[in-house]
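Morning. Coffee machine broken again, so started the prediction first thing and wrote up yesterday's gels while waiting. Chain of 315 residues, entered below exactly as on the submission form.
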Amino acid sequence: MFENSTVKPSIVVFGSINMDLVARTPRLPIPGETLVGHNFLTVPGGKGANQAVAIAQLGVPTKIVGRVGGDSFGSQLINSLQTARVQTEHVLVDEAVSSGVAAIAVDDAGENQIIIIPGANGRVDETDVARLKRLLKGAIALLLQFEIPMSAVLSAARAAKKAGVTVILDPAPAQMDLPVELYSLVDIITPNEIEAGQLVGFTVDGLETAAKAAEVLRQRGVGTAIVKLGAKGAFCATKAETFFVPAFPVSAVDTVAAGDAFNGGLAAAIAEGLSLRQAVVWGAAAGALAATKTGAQSSMPERKTFNAFLQERRI
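Came back before lunch.
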């Protein structure tokens, strides 16, 4: 569709825009425990915004549809997206509510715990879907997540399917009882091990169980299932093939947005016409690079750094 065009196809992200309040601690607290941390950061985040930034940083035209509140966080979040070259004309400033916030604890090993307060994200509805529909013409993919109401996610997926746009779903935060219809609207689903386990109802803790989970998801109607296995890699299943892409070994500093970076790399590769296997490799590379830096959007690799990373590994 876009092969002979000088205009790059765009990617549209429909999802959450949060301010991340990040506390660094030696280890993660257990229930009822108070820990003394050693650093605090206020960082723009939200799975929708993170994925939009990840794609835009790789040089692909990216638009986001969502909401922020009528507070100081809202203006900061929009400015941050614009600095990353994400088009924000379709972000609504909802004066009646605060912006979404994520309280995040990150330990010295790079593991994290996250609590999300939806704010404006929780009010995304059909009026936002109406703005989204106007952007689907000329788009190659729509990225969705679950930090906005499920009714809006489902409506957006329907609209993208009708428009012939590839639907990429990151099912996070995971929900056990998804609308049955949603699976058939999704072209690519990208859960991590925990999310995959919650979706299919059994523990996913390695390659064998990831393969079983991917098959269950495909039987429910998903076109392609990619199970992200963190430091182990990613397993992919389609109607025609299954394959495994090992992770790129790096020294992890903060894994908080590695999954979002994976989706960004995957989508960017698809926009550039690469094969699915190459797209999964791009996702793994972007996720690895993001894990080497702190923060969410601030950890997303720029194209020059990304290309150098792949070239060093002869990819």
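The first strand starts at residue 10 and ends at 14. Going to sketch it on the whiteboard this afternoon.
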